[in-house]
Amino acid sequence: MGNIVISGTGVFTPEESITNAELVKSYNAYAKKFNKINKDRIDAGEINLLESSNEEFIFNASGIKKRYVVNKSGILDPDIMHPIIRKRTNDEPSILAEMSIKASRIAMKEANKTPNDIDAVITACSNLERAYPAIAIEVQNLLGINGFAFDMNVACSSATFGIQAASDMIKSGSADCILVVDPEICSGHLNFKDRDCHFIFGDVCTAVILEKQENNLSKNVFEIISTKCITQFSNNIRNNFGFLNSAKETKPIDRDLLFVQEGRKVFKEVVPMVSQLILEHIKDEDIEVEEIRRLWLHQANKSMNDLIGKKVLGRRPDIKEQPNILQDYANTSSAGSIIAFSQFNSDLESGDIGILCSFGAGYSAGNIILKKK
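User: That's the sequence. What structure does it adopt?
Assistant: Structure tokens below.
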């Protein structure tokens, strides 16, 4: 069995974006109105006064300056505070499939692949818009790909877990070439009325082509040296939205049906977990820390990534060693590390080693060791 390579990547970026200044203006207008309407309850101590947000707080907490979104007007309307997405008929492509097609075509062009060359599609993301039929099967159909397709969700680690699954299937002989797509409309599960997290997420879609090295026709290729995934249960990042909600005594606006996290606990617990995963993985492959030329990490929080990079390399990584796309895209869940990889890999030379790593709710973490061909 020959080696497995990543031969193409694609990133679809929505046209609309929101700056921190715009987001702060919207949130503060909402908070002012909320405090005025609920003044008596706030004075009585029944509910808390909503504090205002500001650009400095957002950037210092996250490193984010702006984010791309599928709909801007609804998010910035203080009376709505969520994206407005047109309801589509069953005869129309779903919005996730539409995003996936755009990212996939970019990846296929880079890999010099046609639909006839691809044997399977995996949609790996945090935010699937429906339970069934699988978004991956819809993408497969729209692209005209034969073979099979399925969805998978391991939260922010979905992309790397999808890459491991695809790599293992190619190794086993069940496919020769697999498309992994990561459509993320994170703005749909974010509570824009919560000061502590209203700035975190953005929307995007990424795609990756994996195939046997002997079939590769691309000029920018990375061999998958090894993959390693780990999980351990935690409630510190959670979203309780699901198909059983209608069977419970609940309302669509219940707080736990949107993104919820204990940020300080996540930082304290995930940083050592991910750092240890990377160090143990490269040790298993007899790779020295000094051989690592690039860290493409999950783009959740700049301070978190900086500390992971420092623990892995034994020093603070420079900008080229650990590229950051947070300032432009915000946290895009499973797609973040793929954006960083796609945008910052062409300068590496043959034989250079890089680490593609994502981590998030679960807790889950997926690590891919790559070598430039």
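The mean pLDDT is 95.
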